[in-house]
Amino acid sequence: MAVQVRQAVRPERNSWVSSYLPEVARGLAVTSRQFFRNLFGGQDVATIQYPEVKRAYPARYRGLHRLTYRDDGQVRCVACMCCSTVCPAQCIHITPAEHDDPGIEKYPASFVIDELRCIVCGLCVEACPCDAIRMDSGIHAHPFYERDRAFLNKDYLMDLGCPSTARQGGIHKGSADKQH
Amino acid sequence: MLLDLFVILLKIAGVVLGFAFPLGAALTLFGDRKQSALVQNRVGPNRARLPFIPAALLGIPHLIADSIKMIFKEDIIPEKANHFWHTIAPALSVFPAIALWAVIPFMDQVCLGTSAPALVEGTFRDVCTGETRNWFSIANLDAGLLYVFAISSISVYGAAIAGWASNNKYSLLGGLRSSAQMISYEVSMALSIMGLLIVYGTLNLNEMAALQGHLLFGWLPMWGIVVQPLSFFLFFVIMMAETKRAPFNAPEGESEIVAGYFTEFSSMKFGVIQLSEYIATVFVGALVSTLFLGGWQIPWLYADGFHFGTESAEPTLALPYWLVVMLRIGAFSVKTLLLVWLQFMLRWTLPSFRYDQIMTLGWKVLLPLSLLNLFVTAFVVTVLL
Hints:
The complex is a heterodimer. Chain A is of the alpha+beta class. Chain A has 6 helices and 5 strands, in the order ααβαββαββαα. The longest helix of chain A has 19 residues. In chain B, the strands form 4 sheets. A 3-stranded antiparallel β-sheet of chain B has the order 7-8-9, with no helix packed on it. A two-stranded antiparallel ribbon of chain B has the order 1-4. Chain B is mainly alpha-helical. In chain B, about 60% of the residues lie in helices and about 5% in strands. Chains A and B meet through α2 of A and α1 and α10 of B.
């Protein structure tokens, strides 16, 4: 097998280029064009003036966690421990408790996410069987002045939350048919 | 006598404190930071705010913040440095930059005659019936250009002494480089301008500017750039090298020798050295526009108004004398600013020359070209005319 050698194309150094002056003029033309274009309009400046103007996050941006709730306002989570089990950073701490309603088996008595440990991988959202935990709040994780503040509890996560339309016990038959 | 002294002081204050210094200081912001930002698709400084004013004001508050910072920073003199010369070096570099402005004419001699000055046919000169006053240049020296050469040559002392007195090897190298660069360009600087002297026959800068009101073939203003295009190019390049700014910034050489000859300077000493470079940049613009771009001349504008077409006693568009004076000062300032803009544009376009390339350019390119220009001009003037 022959060795493939790619010959780089070098610009020709004729006396026109070597005399330097025409190239200076060409360079000046480039910089001047950019100067005047940015002076009157500035369409080439990509800078975003951050605190005043913010870049829109993409739709699938993984922001702070939030807990969804049922139609009656109770937490959707059934404390199945799927998320805390799958979490590679082990940052989700759930204390399950028995629910008064016989239709609901368990609920999280406390649900704490340690934001200092979270690696924002999104596996908890993938693992959740009932759409109880989401990362679609779009809120950038804040810096914290005190370590305690970084432990987001159930009240905080539910304040960010929204009602979930998912139904307990799996997907509806109609929609399941549609998927297949 | 006392009134004359007062007028001179007023002129010095006006030119140095009212034009050279503020423009030089403004260039640290607009030339270096804003212009480079625009060339490089950036925004540039715009975050500083004045109290109670929420607008960015083109970044002008940065100028104030910078100068306040400069003034209040600690002034450090290295222990092994020569304290006397280290202290005096910034003054030595800023003095020539300011002193050069003495001969720059911002306008012709002001005419205080009973009737307004008018263009006299066949001379292309305004003739004043009363007495003239030298209000718009600090000194109307007959040896003006020689003065410029002399003073701009001693500006190297500031850099050389600053480099030597710092007791720092980088500074010393920077000082040596600036001396070597100065020597390579000094010869061609004088020679490149000789052709212009042959054409004008005077060293007086104001006289030179006045002579550029001549019209070639009845319509083309006889500006220096028209009669001596090669000389314009050579002189502009040489004067840029003289200011020690990019692309001729080997004495500073940020990428090689820290900051060159002013590495060991801090606080306002550093500020003064920087400022003197910017003032020198503005001066190059003023000098080149005086010598080659007609100075305060506006094409076809004479003291009584515009004379389009041929030179006739009656102006095509009559203007009052005070308006002509204002227009001429404005024209000179605009030309100067354009050349300053061009110098900064070149700075943001060209990479710095290597040290040996600067020497080569000075001795092997610019010097022969200057001699050639001188020879051709002398030949044309003596043989053909």
